[in-house]
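Hey, can you fold this one?
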Amino acid sequence: QVQLVESGGGAVQAGGSLRLSCAASGRTFSYYYMGWFRQAPGKEREFVAAISGSGGTTYYADSVKGRFTISRDNAKNTVYLQMNSLKPEDTAVYYCAARRPLWSVSYDYTSPGGYDNWGQGTQVTVSS
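Sure. Predicted structure:
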């Protein structure tokens, strides 16, 4: 298990930028696939971005492609989500998630079910 703590949320005007951080505990961070999800009031939690343990593979939701960038620093046990050109529809609580994959098991890293460790979330509010 790994403990995750998000930070960097806040309020910003449309067109602005924010960078979210997710700090993880433990010494095996590089083994973990990391993801960002978000949940707006009254909506289901939705996938935003994911990154492999090495950082060599990334996935993005269509709604954020070209605007958001996921990255990680394994030396700092931290994953980031750089959010540019923010829109009011990006307003949500953003959650960091982690999964240490087992050999020969397939996971859907674009689904909440693909992860078994979650942070507490950080609020992002984008005003028009």
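Residues 31 and 103 are 12 Å apart (CA to CA). Let me know if you want another pass with a different chain boundary.
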